[in-house]
Amino acid sequence: MLKGSTLGFIGGGNMAEAIIKGLLAGGVAAADVMVAEPVAARREYLHGTYGIDVCADNGRVAAAADALVMAVKPQVFRGMVAALGPAGLDGKLLISIMAGITTADMEEVCGSAARVIRVMPNTPALVLEGASTLCRGRNATDDDLFFATGIFDLVGTTCVVEEKLMDAVTGVSGCGPAYVFLFMEALSDAGVKNGLPRDVATRLAAQTVLGAARLLLETGDHPGVLKEKVTSPGGSTIAGIASLERDAFRGAVMAAVDAATARSAELGKK
Ligand SMILES: NC(=O)C1=CN([C@@H]2O[C@H](COP(=O)(O)OP(=O)(O)OC[C@H]3O[C@@H](n4cnc5c(N)ncnc54)[C@H](OP(=O)(O)O)[C@@H]3O)[C@@H](O)[C@H]2O)C=CC1
Ligand SMILES: O=C(O)[C@@H]1CCC=N1
């Protein structure tokens, strides 16, 4: 898919690994992927697990790569570019997955001519079920957006939005897997509380979320319609739903997304 281009990652943490694992599973050659990562144990792990070139030198990866995925924390981004020297990024397509860092921030720090694509992926990319949303900076071309979309298409679904929506995207799908894991953990705990063995409870929780998600995507029905089909008059589901409503479940989810969206915007500030 990279068609002879080399994709470099600056930062080899959780999200970089999720994308790399997905890319390799999707047919990208290990020889076309490089990572710069400061932690020796992490470098050994990434090289040993995926057979990719991993080094400690951001400059070496920047020089060798045609496109660079900026996969460090937003808080270290400016210092990282200052240490590298923005000139080291000249001519490269810069693909940022950093929460809160705008394409204008990228252009300010990396050079006013920088070609920037901003992406908000999520960790299910690891199993090729990622949700990645992209927008482009003022210098990025149609080909750049096509190239970046092609990368993230390999690890799940993609969509393109206006940049002003990217913090909301972060609050929903970037952070969303963590909310769903919290929900599944609670569902599993509740099963154990009611006598189920842990392995059975966890499997039921996960398959229920997976099945419900597929039902929603494949039918295209409104979630409320699908909820109604589970809920028998005077039955057990409505007893559970009434309890969730008393505890303001939906309000709690909306407040969580609001908080994450606001925090994403803050992360970009100097
Ligand atoms: N995790 C997620 O679900 C998602 C994350 N993101 C974004 O992805 C980015 C990475 O997040 P995540 O993978 O979770 O974070 P991690 O901390 O797991 O990964 C960042 C990696 O970059 C390394 N690093 C630190 N400083 C430098 C440097 N100067 N040069 C090169 N590498 C460096 C870190 O090393 P060390 O540990 O020593 O600091 C770490 O290994 C963030 O900007 C985040 O907003 C976006 C969507 C989802
Ligand atoms: O927690 C974070 O800030 C990152 C961005 C989206 C998911 N993880």
Automatic annotation (TrEMBL):
GO terms for biological process: L-proline biosynthetic process. It catalyses: L-proline + NADP(+) = (S)-1-pyrroline-5-carboxylate + NADPH + 2 H(+); L-proline + NAD(+) = (S)-1-pyrroline-5-carboxylate + NADH + 2 H(+). Pfam families: F420_oxidored, P5CR_dimer. The keyword Iron does not apply. PROSITE patterns: P5CR (PS00521). Residues 7-100 form the Pyrroline-5-carboxylate reductase catalytic N-terminal domain. Its EC number is 1.5.1.2. It is an enzyme of class 1 (oxidoreductase). GO terms for cellular component: cytoplasm. The keyword Nucleotide-binding does not apply. One of its GO terms (molecular function) is pyrroline-5-carboxylate reductase activity. NADP(+) binds at residues 10-15, 71-74. Keywords: Amino-acid biosynthesis, Cytoplasm, NADP, Oxidoreductase, Proline biosynthesis. Residues 163-267 form the Pyrroline-5-carboxylate reductase dimerisation domain. It is found in: Cytoplasm. It comes from the Bacteria. Pathway: Amino-acid biosynthesis; L-proline biosynthesis; L-proline from L-glutamate 5-semialdehyde: step 1/1. Signal peptide: none annotated. NADPH binds at residue 58. Belongs to the pyrroline-5-carboxylate reductase family. Catalyzes the reduction of 1-pyrroline-5-carboxylate (PCA) to L-proline. This is Pyrroline-5-carboxylate reductase. It comes from Geobacter sulfurreducens (strain ATCC 51573 / DSM 12127 / PCA). The lineage of its organism: Bacteria, Pseudomonadati, Thermodesulfobacteriota, Desulfuromonadia, Geobacterales. The gene is proC.
